[in-house]
Amino acid sequence: MFSQFGKNFIFGTATAAYQIEGGWNEDGKGLSIWDKFAHTPGKIRDGSSGDLACNTYHDFQTDIEIMKSLTMDAYRFSISWSRLMPEGRGAVNQKGLDYYDRLVDTLLEKGIRPFVTLFHWDTPYALYEKYKGFAGRETANYFAEYALLAAQKFGDRVKDWITLNEPWEHAMMGHFLGEHAPGLKNPWTYFKVAHHQLLGHGLAVQAMRSARRDLNIGVTLSQFPVYPASFEPSQKEMDSVEMADMFINRFYLDGVFKGKYPEKLFARLWPIVPKILQGDMATIQQPVDFLGVNYYSRLFAERKWYIPFLKTWIDRSNSDERYAHPVLGVHGYPEGFKELAKRYREEYGNPAVYITENGTVGGEISDKNRIRYLTHYLSSLREAIDEGSDIRGYFYWSLLDNFEWNSGLACRMGLIHVDHATQQRTIRESGFWLRDLIANQESRR
Ligand code: FCB
What's the fold here for domain 10-444? Predict the structure, then answer.
């Protein structure tokens, strides 16, 4: 039966600091690129910002109580780098440390296992001003210093760590398309940001391990099965599928697990490939304890001669009805879990995997569609485990309706509805549905 996930499987929810905390300029926190970006008129679709968001900087207790009532095993949240180190390096903000201390202690008191992400896109603004964030190699070094500090301060209680969240999105949306902070539209910085994030990951893993031996450290990648846009693709289109896959998925997977980048991709994109120094790839290939996978849907690749270098247009949508899921519609692709898992088994040594994000949009309290989504995606995940994948946990995105980046507060993805004006929480039907699924695990009974 799909609903049984085995003895040690954990269920949780995920959030990120800028999307929920608020308190953007309080108690010594430094600015991040997201503070600046969201304050720039026209950047956020509904004109909102993360200034207050879900106000968890002032009240996380309420949400932890709710998590407990929903019998969650774990909670994935991120640390705001500029709350801990206002300039991104050097001076440490004691009040920032105190905040995460209280958060971690409260989770542990309630029996909820913390999974901490170190970088969920909110680069300290000072590092952006000086080095253009991860476009500068220096930022990778400062990231490792910050990771070391976090491991030293919280590693006695937090055992599960995620260095980066979705480095592709940060590089692509933030530095190439300009739709996310810092809002740069510069294809020439894209690969620098990508490479330096991975370098930062490797250096952070080394630094954290030097501080403690007992940490589980992984990296979270967004993953997309790539399909040809047309149902009967030409050879050229299949080439586009391969290019898109290398650009989005394999660059990061191969870097971390094989210590190299796809040669074919670099041959095509040679004018914009980053400078790789001797030793970089070995640093990036640090052994990790798990792969974090964020999976929502697939992508479609189409041959377009006029797109520079890649010659490929990549889209989330496809109007061809034959690609639509019978229940979930055009964007639903639960089978993706099985396809990705097969790839990790066959080509990446079957690493331990946590699904660190998966979820869907929908504002209603009686969110039947979200329940259908969960049913289909979790069945596929269960099948992937049956096929031999070492998948150890599932985190729903998100715990709360939060600040969904350039879509703002209007985009609702939570198991819990949040009225952002009053900060009132209401658990959605899907929240109770997930609670019942967890309660029915044989290991719990
Ligand atoms: C992922 C992000 C996460 C959230 C979800 C919907 O790309 O990691 O912060 O925005 O998408």
Answer: TIM Barrel (3.20.20)
62-82 exposure pattern, b = at least 16 Cβ within 10 A, e = fewer: ebbebbeebbbbbbbbbbbbb
Active-site residue identified among 166, 169, 237, 404: 166
Catalytic residue among 169, 237, 302, 357: 357
404 counts as catalytic: no
| Ligand 1 near 401 CB (within 6 A) | no
* Token pair belonging to 278: 């001797």
Give catalytic status of residue 357 as yes or no: yes
Residue 136 backbone dihedrals phi, psi, to 5 degrees: -95, 135
Contact 169 CB / ligand 1 (< 6 Å)? yes
For the Cβ of 75 lying below 6 angstroms from any atom of ligand 1, the answer is no
Residue 299, beta-bridge partner list: 226
Distance 268 CA to ligand 1 centre (A): 29
Q: Where are the domains of the chain?
A: 10-444
Best residue among 121, 168, 294 to mutate for probing ligand 1's pocket (most ligand atoms within 8 Å of CB) is 294
Question: How does pLDDT run along the chain (445 residues), one tens digit per residue?
Answer: 578 999 899 999 999 999 999 999 999 999 999 999 999 999 999 999 999 999 999 999 999 999 999 999 999 999 999 999 999 999 999 999 999 999 999 999 999 999 999 999 999 999 999 999 999 999 999 999 999 999 999 999 999 999 999 999 999 999 999 999 999 999 899 999 999 999 999 999 999 999 999 999 999 999 999 999 999 999 999 999 999 999 999 999 999 999 999 999 999 999 999 999 999 999 999 999 999 999 999 999 999 999 988 999 999 999 999 999 999 998 999 999 999 999 999 999 999 999 999 999 999 999 999 999 999 999 999 999 999 999 999 999 999 999 999 999 999 999 999 999 999 999 999 999 999 999 999 888 7
78 C-beta closer than 6 A to ligand 1: no
